[in-house]
Amino acid sequence: MADNIVPSAGTAFVWSKETPREQLNELYEVVVAKAKDSIGWYVRKKQWPSRMSRFFRALAIALIVIGGICPILQSTIPANGQAAAGVFGIAFNNWGYLLLALGAASVLADRFGGFSTAWMRYITTHLKLDGLLQRFQLEWHIASLEIDLSENPKDPVQLTALLEKLRTFAQESSALVNQETEAWVVEFQNQLAVLQKATEREKEKPAPQQQQQQQQQQPGADAAAADKKLPIAANPEKPATPAADPNIVNPTPEPAQEQPTD
Length: 262
Fold this sequence. Notes:
Blueprint: H1 20-45, H2 47-76, E1 78-79, E2 82-83, H3 92-113, H4 115-147, H5 156-204, H6 208-229
Antiparallel strand pairs: 1-2
Helix pairs in contact: 1-4, 1-5, 2-3, 2-4, 4-5
């Protein structure tokens, strides 16, 4: 089983005016065989991506569901009047976090492995090639009945029409394979770009030791900044006397009146 679509051997073909019917049938068999080889390649290659895609998707669903149930088990399963201790000494809540993380990792493995997308590409291209081949075979048989290939046709217009059908079918089948290959290249480049961005973000993050030093230096810097913001009083022991308002006139105290004594 070949890993890639192997091109057909390019044998020399010389057109002979004496036997055009045999040569048309020979060209037909070559073009159809090439299309069938491409269809068979996609049928074989879709098996591995389909298995891996189903495995990772089913694993992700199972892990996420069980991870969501773990917090419920933590509160519903009592152990000696207390919350359940979990499995292997690990609380169910922590198991839930772990299983959810593994479920997300399964989805990422399927995404970066390209299993689901490759499966879809192979199925789509296989169906398109198969439909194109069936349509071409029907059109070829109809044209053969109109031209009557049971005998050697001599009309160049009729021969050109049949050759044009062969050329069109060969180009369309090759175009479908090229489209699938280009889609794979674009997907591969996008995955590399995502991985590169993630790597750059990890490089920009400070090391744990450097981050700890920054956190230790942060309280001192905050205290120095707070000291700069506090106002400095001229004489902190003596409160400042408010300035007199010239518009306010101090009233003159009235003399005390003597009360008469009996």
